[in-house]
Specification:
CATH superfamily: Vaccinia Virus protein VP39
Largest sheet: 7 strands, mixed
Bound molecules: S-adenosylmethionine
Number of domains: 1
Distance between the termini: 38 Å
Shape: globular
CATH topology: Rossmann fold
Order of helices and strands: HHEHEHEEHEHHEHHE
Length: about 280
């Protein structure tokens, strides 16, 4: 989905969310203190958060398995973020197949940062996570429940020159059009069998210029990869023009413009019952 090296150079705003959530909610995790606990990082991407943030923020543990659907991300993670306590494995969190024996009921704790909003089949994801946790296991995660960026994707999907590349626009941000995203998320968690806490928080991504906005958006735009490379610049220019038309840009003169993108962050803590 992304180019790992570009992503880690442009993810300070995502990292800000992660640090804040860990600071406020890490105390919810039920550590046993045995030093034998196993963690899974769901959608580990380039592995830098797995190694630099999750491993460092955890007490003594046995190890972490980072799972991701992208072979490119996993390759980068294995090359750049290897560690004796971390293993990186391929997994589609929304798989309809039986979860591999090595991952079933194996984890005491799970973390997931900025992943679930890319996955349409939320019921399946939560059921799969339930399968991977041990009884009494828990998870702390965050994802974007809704964002005004979706307005840009939806407008760009209507442009004849780009529509063929954005056909799957309704597959992302699955809670975007829910009347009450909190209820919809909780409903999926109940169906999976979790007890849970779900908090929705209003946030803003602020970019210091049109260029900063374009670069940061390009690395997380899941549709860019469908566009021929020689049209990437034009695709992202049109993306920025639509954002400007939707008044994401401040009114300052062109050289001092900042770009403000509102979004609603979902912070979730889940627990699988003990039995
Ligand atoms: C924005 S990156 C976040 C990476 C990492 N969690 C972090 O905070 O830096 C989102 C990651 O989710 C992964 N992803 C998207 N859909 C997935 C799926 N169905 N199963 C597993 N991983 C998925 C992508 O490949 C990507 O690496």
């Amino acid at each position: 989905m992304y180019q790992a090296d570009l992503y880690i150079r442009n993810n300070d705003l995502q990292r800000r969310d992660i640090y804040k959530v860990l600071h406020n909610s890490m105390n919810l995790i039920k550590w046993t203190g045995t030093g034998e606990e196993m963690i899974v990082d769901l959608g580990c991407g380039s592995g830098d958060v797995t190694k630099d943030v999750i491993l460092r923020s955890s007490p003594k543990i046995k190890g972490i398995v980072g799972v991701d659907i992208s072979s490119d991300m996993l390759k980068f993670a294995r090359d750049q973020n290897s560690h004796e306590q971390i293993e990186y494995k391929h997994l589609n969190l929304a798989t309809k197949h039986k979860i591999d024996q090595n991952l079933r009921g194996k984890f005491d704790h799970a973390f997931s940062f900025h992943v679930f909003h890319w996955i349409k089949d939320q019921k399946r994801v939560f059921k799969n996570i339930y399968t991977m946790l041990k009884p009494g296991g828990d998870m702390l995660g965050l994802f974007v429940a809704s964002t005004d960026v979706m307005l840009i994707y939806e407008k760009q999907a209507m442009m004849p020159k780009w529509s063929k590349y954005l056909q799957r626009v309704s597959d992302i941000f699955p809670y975007q059009h829910c009347e009450d995203p909190q209820v919809a998320i909780e409903d999926n968690l109940n169906q999976a069998g979790f007890s849970h806490m779900v908090k929705l928080e209003k946030r803003e991504f602020i970019y210091s210029s049109r260029e900063h906005f374009k670069t940061s958006m390009a690395v997380i735009n899941p549709f860019v990869k469908n566009v021929p490379e020689d049209q990437h610049e034009e695709f992202m220019d049109d993306f920025a023009d639509i954002a400007e038309g939707l008044h994401f840009f401040s009114d300052h003169d062109q050289h001092n413009q900042i770009v403000i993108v509102p979004y609603i962050l979902a912070v979730i803590y889940l627990r699988k019952p003990d039995f």
